[in-house]
Write a structure and sequence with these properties.
The protein has one domain: 3-Layer(aba) Sandwich (Rossmann fold). The longest helix is centred in the first third of the chain and has 30 residues. With 217 residues, the chain is of the alpha/beta class. The termini are far apart. It contains 6 helices and 6 strands. The protein has a 6-stranded mixed sheet, with helices on both faces.
């Protein structure tokens, strides 16, 4: 029987002062408070999302691009479902203070040591030919607002044979995709629909969206 990943060890026994509940990436206390509140639910919902993805992909192996990945909790979900050899690209413009702690550096399975910036991730996406999975686990707008995200994604994805797109809003159990984010996804899929056969699936009781795309013959 596979041993459950004990994600609580990530923040266990870290001695921090009292602080408010506002998430500040460079503040260890803020990181620990956030993870105590949302770490376990995020991990479990990411696992559920990846299980749904695996049902669709079958034995194919994903190349996961995790935008706004934070400390990489979704990597643990990917390992749980796809195994430790899963290809995973952690993308985040902000560095979390907890990534410098002994807990993080000694955690098993190993968490990401290096995080990509957005431009680097776009390059890696451009050269990934099979099964790219674009994951937005907190918000589509974790990307800098001065980027034309839809334009950049359409340009790169047009060259692919297939891809998967996942929006899973796990920052809080009660959140779901906001209307403007649903509109963004609808516009993106509309722009790609001439090239790809698209299948959309609501997941997590409609708190998430999973889309598979195969190039038309």
């Amino acid at each position: 029987m596979k041993k459950e990943i004990e994600i609580e060890k990530l923040w266990q026994d870290i001695d921090v002062k009292e602080c408010d509940n506002v998430l500040r990436y460079d503040d260890l206390c803020s990181n620990v408070n956030y993870l105590k509140m949302y770490g376990r639910p995020n991990y479990e919902q990411n696992c559920e999302t990846f299980k749904m993805l695996r049902k669709i992909m079958g034995e194919e192996k994903p190349a996961i691009f995790s935008f706004g990945c934070g400390v990489g909790l979704d990597y643990l979900g990917a390992v749980e479902v796809f195994g430790e050899k899963v290809v995973y690209y952690p993308i985040d413009e902000c560095k979390w203070a907890i990534t410098e702690t002994k807990n993080y550096k000694s955690f098993e399975p190993k968490l990401p040591k290096r995080f990509m910036k957005f431009d680097e991730s776009m390059f890696m996406l451009s050269i990934t030919q099979r099964n790219p999975v674009l994951c937005f686990f907190h918000s589509l707008y974790s990307i800098k607002k001065d980027r034309d995200l839809k334009k950049e994604l359409v340009k790169i994805l047009q060259s692919k044979s297939n891809f998967y797109f996942v929006c899973n809003f796990t920052i809080n159990n009660h959140f779901g995709p906001m209307l403007n984010e649903r509109d963004f996804i609808a516009d993106l899929m509309q722009d790609l629909s001439k090239t790809f056969a698209l299948k959309k699936l609501d997941i997590l009781n409609e708190r998430g969206i999973l889309i598979s795309a195969e190039r038309k013959n």
